[in-house]
Amino acid sequence: MERTQRHYKTVIEIPQRHYKIVMEIDQRHYKIVVERTQRHYKIVIKIRQRDYKIVMERTQRHYKIVIERAKRHYKIVMEIAQRHYKIVMERRQRH
Length: 95
Hints:
Helix content: under 10%
Number of helices: 0
Number of strands: 8
Strand content: over 45%
Distance between the termini: 15 Å
Radius of gyration: 14 Å
């Protein structure tokens, strides 16, 4: 079975200490709110008025985000170089 590739557009806005991430997936809007608490990052995604929790792990300069949604796993790798933020989102297949 062939699956069409889906484009993931992510816009990150960082005002002061708050991190705002806007994700567009399949013409559906995903709102991500990132809250910084000491060394931990708490991310809440609101999809169709439902909250989804994200676990964000920091390894050196790399940030690994794992999203669990409706038995579908989304892996996000955020690379931070100087002031540029690059997010690569890959879709994991269900095992």
